[in-house]
User: What shape does this take?
Amino acid sequence: MTIAEIGGKCNLSTDTLRYYERVGLIPPVKRTKGGIRDYSEEDYQWVEFVKCMRGAGIPVEMLVEYLELFQYGKDSREARKKILKEQRDILAERLAEIQQTLDKLDFKLANYDEFVYEAEKKLSKQVYDKE
Assistant: This one.
């Protein structure tokens, strides 16, 4: 399969596929005599695996490390699992921060007239008093 065919099948741009290969997220793809990438079924499976991991929020840098460990086989299983757990913890922390921000915004909306609007009026007065 050509890079365009794989890109269409996986809904990824050809630039993304080239990048994935360049940084080591997928193994080097064999090329035709003319130098055109010729993706095999195994290459396709690698692309789908990387796409799945990226869809789970794994950053490229962590995924490169994960795939380097993968080369050691089952001996690196716990180390790979640790990477996934670390990323999960990072995402859970970000989610908690976003939830706190959302809660604050909900409070401001629910109490807009009493707090936010009154604060705006005071600011507005200060601005107009300066002129």
Q: What stands out?
A: Residues 77-110 form the longest helix (34 residues). Helices lie at 3-10, 14-23, 41-55, 60-70, 77-110, 112-130.
